[in-house]
Design goal:
There is one protein chain. 46% of the residues lie in helices and 13% in strands. It is of the alpha/beta class and 321 residues long. Helix 1 crosses helix 4 and helix 5 runs antiparallel to helix 6. The longest helix is centred in the first third of the chain and has 18 residues.
Amino acid sequence: MVPTREELRAQLAEVLLACFSAGEIRRLLGHLPGGDQLAHRLPGPIASAADTSTAAVGALEALGYLERPDFWASFRRERPQRVAEIEAIRIRFVRQSDVEDGLAADGEVEPPSELVILLVSASPIKKARLRVDEEFAAIIENLRLRANLRIEQRPAVTFDRLSAALNDVRPNVLHISSHGESGSLYFQARRSGDDLQRVPQTALIKLLHALGSDLKLVVLNACDSLEIAEGIVARKPSQITWAIGMKDPIYDDDAIDYSVALYDSIAAGRAIGIAHQAALARLALNVEDDSLEPVPSEIPRLVPDDPIRAEKFLLVKRRHA
């Protein structure tokens, strides 16, 4: 039987109490990103270690840290002799979250029978032309016999057109092909005479969380988009479980090869982590021994970095054509 969330919180509080004093718990939380917010939720310095550990778990839960890898990594780093115990409680939290997200209690995924993929693209005049038509044609051609997919396409997207598409299509997967740089994507010009529309990550993330109630995966096929992908899944609470971004600039050919391989494996009923690894394996073919460029298979990154969950998280049931 899978324990309740309340039971898991009590177990974690016991583990913290066994590992740390009250002061050590404060320091552990204080060193996390955004640790000031956590510290404000703890009782005063004269509180007992038991009360501090219980309050710490409540704060971690309320602010979404129990689904983030940084808390568990800090915990393991501080008490390496208890890694097995820490990992056991972390996995129990993952499994309990899976049940809440619609995954079976035994760890097997209960995905939908049809996956809706929205492909949007932008290649503004001021930027080098992207081969988005070829990319989307390759994706659609490769998946045309997959009866468990519905693919919608929107070209020349602006921020407002993306908003409208999210309202109209209500996708499970959003795939954006555009130019990008750290913290921004570039869409089509909104007004006549403009060269392009810069979309900062703050605006994009707010839009996706406002209108993406059915989203489970966002793929940013844009150069230097990893920071945006991380921001999408870091926002709490979040229904968007996974995002893929590019750590460095990526060539069109590599972007096309990665996308086709990724969606082919997803449609075949593979878990998101396995589909991502298969797509990276496809990119490994594109390496030139004497090239000084970044290795293609090291550019796309799946976030959050949670390989245990990624290797069992299915996006769609496999269904024969």
